[in-house]
Amino acid sequence: MSLDTPLAFAASTLPALLSTALFDLVVALERWLVP
Questions:
Q1: Tell me, what's the pLDDT at 2?
Q2: How far apart are alpha carbons 4 and 7 in whole angstroms?
Q3: How many domains does the chain have?
């Protein structure tokens, strides 16, 4: 029962972190490719 909360927290946090990192990567690539 004690593992339920950390797993739910990770499941709800990881997608947001990944999408944010992916968005930052795309923005950085666009700045690098387009002067």
A1: 62
A2: 5
A3: 1
Q: DSSP for 1-35, please give it.
A: -TTHHHHHHHHHHHHHHHHHHHHHHHHHHHHHH--
Place of tokens 């923005």: 27
Q: Which two tokens stand for residue 16?
A: 């947001």
Q: Report yes or no on 35 lying in a domain.
A: no
21 is in which domain, residue-wise?
1-28
pLDDT digits (tens, 9 = 90+) for 1-30: 566 788 888 888 999 999 999 999 999 999
The answer to whether residue 33 sits within a structural domain is no
Residue type, 11: A
